[in-house]
Amino acid sequence: MRGPIVVLALLVTPFVATIASAQDTQPSNPGDKKCAVRERGNSPDTLSRTDPAAQGNKQCAPVTVGHTTISGVAFFDVDRDGMLGVDEVGLSSWQVQLIGPVSTLTTMTDGNGAYSFPNLDAGTYTVCVVPPPGWDQISPTNSTAGGTACGTGGFGYSITVRAVATDTTIASVNFGYVSQ
User: Helix %, strand %, coil % for the chain, to 5?
Assistant: First the structure.
């Protein structure tokens, strides 16, 4: 009885060793195909139908997904040109809304009129300002000038944030206003 078991063990050992090395959690090289993210399908260079990186292979570097920050200034547009100039000042304590794919966020402008929405994931967002009574919007002014209608009665910016590998900032999303 021991003879057949020994022969069977000798026959099975190369297959078990191959399977064990295929499941090795120590990649010999960081660019090893076991950790590469691949499209699923019947590609001839596919090692298997499942993606080891998505299956929790702990030695594979995780896919880095960056976030985006949208920032700008609400300012007193003295010369009414729609652009923040050196002689123009920020408007503090104004509410800014970010309407996104999942929710609406709000923030207040700081003492310099600046605002920021950090850590945004991919998606399309609309940035709008809620001005206090007595102010007229100069920029953006309408949809032909790049503005998007806001529920606040004015116009804002529609911004598409793409999935990126590093953190990114979309700056100068500015709003110009004049007092009535």
Answer: 15, 30, 55
Structural domains of the chain in order of their starting residue, each with its CATH number: 2-55 (no CATH), 68-179 (2.60.40.10)
Give pLDDT tens digits for 12-47: 455 444 444 444 444 445 555 555 555 555 555 545
- Please tell me the distance from the alpha carbon of residue 20 to that of residue 121, in angstroms, as a whole number: 38
Phi-psi region for residue 146, left (φ > 0), alpha (ψ -120 to 50) or beta?
A: left
The whole-model pTM stands at 0.65
Would you say 72 and 125 are in contact if contact means Cβ atoms under 8 Å apart?
no
Rounded to whole angstroms, the Cα distance separating 169 from 115 reads 12
Hey, which bits of the chain come out as E strands?
Answer: 68-76, 95-99, 104-108, 114-120, 123-130, 135-139, 148-149, 155-161, 168-170, 175-179
C-alpha closest to that of 50 among 59, 58, 41, 60: 41
Could you give the C-alpha distances from 46 to 34, 56, 62, in angstroms and in order? Answer: 10, 18, 20
Question: pLDDT of 102-112, one tens digit each?
Answer: 999 999 999 99
